[in-house]
Write a structure and sequence with these properties.
The complex is a heterodimer of chains A (about 300) and B (about 90). With about 300 residues, chain A is an alpha/beta fold. Helix content of chain A is about 60%, strand content about 15%. Chain A contains five helices and six strands, in the order H-E-H-E-H-E-H-E-E-E-H. Chain A has a five-stranded mixed beta sheet, sandwiched between helices. Chain A is elongated and about 120 Å long. By secondary structure, chain B is mainly beta. Chains A and B meet through helix 1, helix 4, strand 6 and helix 5 of A and strand 1, strand 2, strand 4, strand 6 and strand 7 of B. Chain B: One of its GO terms (molecular function) is proton-transporting ATP synthase activity, rotational mechanism. Chain B: Keywords: ATP synthesis, CF(1), Ion transport, Membrane, Transport. Chain B: Belongs to the ATPase epsilon chain family. Chain B: It is a peripheral membrane protein.
């Protein structure tokens, strides 16, 4: 076998192996998207109930809560970045990091100091590469988010929020995650979590006792105290679930195009190797014919 | 006694645990135990972790554990929301 032919065969082999791997990853991701989407859907009733309750308290009572009041001056802002633990998902993580970069520029221009919280190995390694420091990071389990992780993140950011800025606390909290739009489209989204924007619902009435007359147990401010952290937690959990669903979708898409590319490579190399084989044969024939001719001429003389 | 029933929704953070009609719901709030029947006034209460007892329309009893959550009542719809909730 000629040297060139052998090189082509090697390349075909390697492309075939790669294709097997990417194909397997594509199929795995495809099966996980459905599960991840189902989890997003399953968490919807909870999110709806919590949002509804928060709007009810916020709308039907007149309480000033530290979590809902806009501070006079925002000195420090926290940014929570949700990425994935593993790569091979196209621009999934880098999209979020780009969005984070844009937000960083914007907040810095407003004169705010930024404190980062990272979720996912990709964000951590990105920060390591750029020699940036993050206040806290969570790694592992981004493809199957747990409620307890969401609670831990929520508790941490709330602790920072409740601290004074001079003691390392923050006045504002942003989250950045990939929103699952559809199987083929995931968009990085920035959301300001705290202080809470005016909660959705009817416009705020003037006093505590307006229809429907909710009774609060033990009292309105205590209920709000207990509800708001739960609300934040459910928002964070939702971001994690969306990010997980997006991760699987992005990976499926990336792996599908990798498989297609491997197919194309195999096809091209097969053509080239056929050509090489053919020309080798042609050369051999012409060598034989030439040799026979030469011998015949010698005999005639 | 009226034959109105309560519509009960028990939801945990990651799934809806149980939905159905019930005659009575007994839950433990931070203030103490509370029993809810149809026609109860709108209410929002913080649950202390513990069990929720639901009496179904046919008299059967259903017990659920609800941890770290709250309960809301309005227009005969009772929503029990907890981070972790499980039927026992």
């Amino acid at each position: 076998m000629g040297a060139q032919l052998r090189v082509y065969r090697q390349k075909i082999k390697s492309a075939q192996t790669t294709k097997k791997i990417t194909r397997a990853m594509e199929l795995i991701s495809a099966s996980r998207i459905a599960k991840a989407q189902a989890r997003v859907a399953a968490s919807a009733p909870y999110a709806r109930a919590v949002t509804r309750a928060v709007s009810a308290v916020a709308t039907y009572s007149n309480i000033d809560h530290p979590l809902t009041t806009e501070p006079a001056k925002i000195e420090r802002a926290a940014v929570v970045i949700f990425t994935s633990d593993r790569g091979l998902a196209g621009a999934f993580s880098s999209n979020v990091m780009k969005e984070a970069e844009a937000l960083t520029v914007k907040l810095t221009e407003e004169g705010k100091k930024i404190v980062y919280f990272l979720v996912g190995r990709k964000a951590v390694s990105n920060f390591g590469f750029r020699r940036r420091t993050a206040e806290k990071q969570w790694i592992g389990g981004t493809d199957l988010p747990q409620v307890d992780t969401a609670k831990e993140i929520a508790d941490t950011v709330l602790e920072y929020f409740n601290r004074e800025a001079s003691e390392g606390g923050v006045d504002e909290i942003h989250v950045i995650f990939n929103r699952f739009v559809s199987m083929i489209s995931q968009e990085p989204e920035t959301l300001r979590l705290l202080p809470l924007e005016v909660v959705e619902g009817e416009e705020a009435p003037a006093s505590d006792d307006v229809f429907p007359l909710y009774e609060f147990e033990p009292d309105a401010s205590k209920v709000l105290d207990a509800l708001l952290p739960v609300y934040i937690e459910s928002k964070i959990f939702n971001a994690m679930l969306q990010s997980a669903a997006s991760e699987h979708a992005a990976r499926q898409k990336a792996m599908k195009s990798a498989t297609d590319n491997a197919d194309k490579l195999i096809k091209n190399y097969t053509r080239l190797s056929n050509q090489a084989r053919q020309s080798e044969i042609t050369q051999q024939i012409s060598e034989i014919v030439g040799g026979a001719d030469a011998l015949a001429t010698v005999e005639e003389d | 006694m009226s034959d109105k029933t309560l519509r009960v929704e028990l939801v945990a953070a990651d799934k809806a645990v149980w939905t159905g009609e019930a005659k009575m719901v007994i839950a433990k709030t931070v203030e103490g135990e509370i029993g809810l029947l149809a026609g109860h006034e709108p209410m929002l209460a913080i649950l202390s972790s513990g069990e929720v007892r639901i009496t179904l329309v046919d008299g059967d009893k259903l017990i659920a554990s609800a941890e770290d959550g709250f309960l809301s009542v309005e227009h005969d719809v009772v929503t029990i929301v907890a981070r972790h909730a499980e039927l026992v």
